[in-house]
Amino acid sequence: MDDGSSQQQPPKRVVVCGGGIIGVCTAYYLAKKGAIVTLIERSSIAGAASGKAGAFLALHMCDDGPLSSLARASFNLHRSLAEELNGSLSYGYCPLTTLKVTVDESKPASESHILPPWVDGGVKSEEIIGTTDTTAQIHPQLFTRALLAKAVEEYGVEVVMEKVESVAVEGDGVVVMVDGYGAIRGDAVVLALGPWTSKLTEVSSKFKVIGKKVHSIVLEPKDGDMITPHGIFATYYPGQGMGPIDPDFFPRPTSDVYICGPSVEVEVPDEPDLVFPDEESIQVLKRVAGIVSSYLKEENVKVQSEQAGLMPCTDDELPIMGEIPGMKHCYVASGHGYWGILFGPASGVAMAELVLDGHASIVDLGPFSPTRFVGTKI
Questions:
Q1: Has domain 13-84+139-207+315-373 been given CATH number 3.50.50.60?
Q2: pLDDT tens track for 238-271
Q3: Nearest alpha carbon to residue 225 among 258, 257, 248, 249
């Protein structure tokens, strides 16, 4: 029997900085667990890498390492969210058969019984690396915005579209200074600003999140009905002594095909809107697309998008998730790299558990703690 000696604690007020998939998932699960959440984003929701990613999901491709449990938990959360949010219609959730292929113009194509008809270039080898049970695809911007819409409508998340200027510990809480808005106080703050996380002077000396630029194009084939849901990881050998190129092809249910190339580390600009594609890289993607598939040749497609995004990465290729050393009540969730869209839901759950419960139960956050960088030279 309740004798009245214990009182329910008031809900925590948590500020989440960053409107990409990691920030939105964190805000969603914080609010779902009962926190009062304010999300701050200076540009647009999923306007940077989260809106320009391939959004390929894989259950098993991070096995045999510290990312395995994160990937597997998040893949299953993506599947359940797709049922909850009608993802097949609202953001293009689609299970895929996934293949790895090698394309060499200098050699004749080999006969294949596993390639989809639209992959009709000079493929000399192929291998199935994922099935509809283990790999899938979403449209990342539509997913992020759909999840935020639910967070706002059902759990009362407040969205502030301004730039975070500074973060500081104040007493038993935090204060976030926001350009054009003023101070937002809370019991805790989560920094999910992608490669811009390290732009905050308060954390720039503690760890580094770098930006790797990835170019991509989105093509709408004239014969879109021929494009089946097969994810393609290609290695293309141009010949003439040139090194291979590794483009990825991800068809979407919206009858278009997303194609991206390799990444390269670049300096992070002051604003996400200052990330521009390089024309030469875009032209290479267009050419390779036409070599891998005649359906994707320039004369057979409409170019929907030519773009570039900055993947947030770390030197050890592991995310940074945890309380920031020397900054109580201040947390970071960034550096998720190539698999950021996959890792979004489980990262959100883990951060919500850490902030509200003091520890994460969905995954072990130990390998991802920012304390691993203490004492290292930034």
A1: yes
A2: 766 667 889 999 999 878 999 999 899 999 999 8
A3: 257
